[in-house]
Amino acid sequence: MNQENKTTTAEEVKATKPKRTRKKTPKKSEFETCMDHVFENEGILSDDPVDRGGLTKYGVTISTYKKYWKDKGEEKTEDDLRKATKAEVLEIYRKNFWEPSRVEQLPKEIRMTYFDMVVNHGQGNAVRILQKAINLGRISLISEDGLIGKNTISHAKKVSRDKLQASRALFYANLIARRPQQEKFWLGWYRRCKNT
Predict the structure, then answer these.
(1) Is 156 within a domain?
(2) Strand 45-46 relative to strand 56-57, pairing
(3) What is the dihedral of CA 75, 77, 83, 89, to 10 degrees?
(4) Which residues, including other chains, have CB under 8 Å from residue 57's CB and lie 6 or more apart?
């Protein structure tokens, strides 16, 4: 048989094609996964006069930004925050929010919600919301002091994500009752609460 007239089967074609190898994407750390969610909630740049945080970039307020850099011996301005990169902001979140809030010591089911609360409400308020969820429907098991100690961490094992979200929704409602001008943020806060 003449080589020029030979037809090639699909199997032969497949066998001659070089195999493609997929590059393995490194698995994200829990911190990076939580930060993707935070960035989605916070957006890029905001400077709403009704927002008590003032100028924010990726959710980092101007006061947090200035304090972070002042502790490193540098003075920063609003212009510096406006130019801040995600990498710079990630480091601020890691050092000022993730590590001190002891996220990784809490049950996995509530970590994302808790961390998002630390970012959105500050650590003391986030811990109080968690402590209220622990005490929800019970005689107070723990003090609602806003401190993330071994007692809060231990009792957090009994808190579901739903219970924590309910406690957070109540926090938002109480905040709006105290500061009615904040109502303009209610729908966004509700979505954040529901989706985190």
Answers:
(1) no
(2) antiparallel
(3) 60
(4) 44, 45, 65, 81, 82, 84, 89
**Cα 139 to Cα 110: distance, rounded to the nearest angstrom:** 22
Q: Return the bridge partners of 46, or none.
A: 56
Q: Residue for token digits 């090639």?
A: 8
- pTM for the full predicted model: 0.83
Quick check: is 167 in a domain? no
Task: Give the integer Cα–Cα distance in Å for 134 and 156.
Answer: 6
102-152 pLDDT per residue, tens: 999 999 999 999 999 999 999 999 999 999 999 988 777 899 999 999 999
What's the whole-number average pLDDT of the chain?
Answer: 90
Query: 40: number of CA atoms within 13 Å, CB side?
Result: 12
∠ CA 50-37-28 to the nearest 5 degrees?
150
In a domain, 129, yes or no: no
Query: Which residues constitute the domain of residue 91?
Result: 29-101
Q: What single-letter DSSP state applies at residue 75? A: -
Q: For residue 59, what are its two tokens?
A: 């959710």
Q: How many domains does the chain have?
A: 1
Indicate whether 109 belongs to any domain: no
* CA–CA distance, 157 with 24 (Å, rounded to integer): 34
